[in-house]
Amino acid sequence: MVMDNIYKFNEHITKKDRETLLKQTGSVFWLMGLSGSGKSTIASEVQKILHMQGKLVYLLDGDNIRSGINSDLSFSIEDRIENIRRIAHIAKLMSDMGGIVLVSFITPLEQMRKIAENILNETYHLIFIDATLDKCIKRDTKGLYKRAIKGEIKDFTGISSPFEEPINYNLRLNTTNTDVIQCTKNLIEYILKIQQRGS
Fold first, then answer.
1. Can you give the residue range of the structural domain that contains 168?
2. How many domains, the chain?
3. CATH code of the domain covering residue 45
4. Element (H, E) at 49
5. For the whole model, what pTM was predicted?
6. How far apart are CA 64 and CA 73, in angstroms?
7. pLDDT digits (tens, 9 = 90+) for 45-80
8. Burial class of residue 143 (count of CB atoms within 10 Å of its CB; 0-12, 13-18, 19+)
9. How far apart are CA 80 and CA 74, in angstroms?
10. What is the rounded CA–CA span in Å between residue 128 and residue 1?
């Protein structure tokens, strides 16, 4: 639907102005992978460390977003696409503010990742948190796989809903064979490299 009564507000303060004030580069680091792969654990650790280093950083987590702004959405493919579209726009606003944004969403389909990339453009960095389905089922930190296998949860990624491994990504962290501490270190190194490049 085309809205002919909406005009984009042109700000006098630019993204660059805010980045200069914060002494950092507004960017989005999109952590995707299966449930139980370690996305939120790694993102939470990275957020804590970057905050201690004086960075303005914020974590947008799938569970938290779905309990609030996206609580009206189901886990159908159509609603998951809308879930990603909304969060990408929120992340864009936060990166335009000059923030370092960590997004922790399963983002199971290539179509969804392309939507996020098209919205975020050059600020988008896809981080593939790679863990085998068997490993995630063994971890089952929330007991969700057990319920999904029993048929108690519909449209569950990897069980009754598809998961496509990404074709392209900026960084891959293999949590099947690498511990959280090392994965956290690797992601922080990547983020700081992007920050230096943008400064």
1. 16-198
2. 1
3. 3.40.50.300
4. helix 39-52
5. 0.92
6. 13
7. 999 999 999 999 999 997 788 888 888 998 889 999
8. exposed
9. 7
10. 34
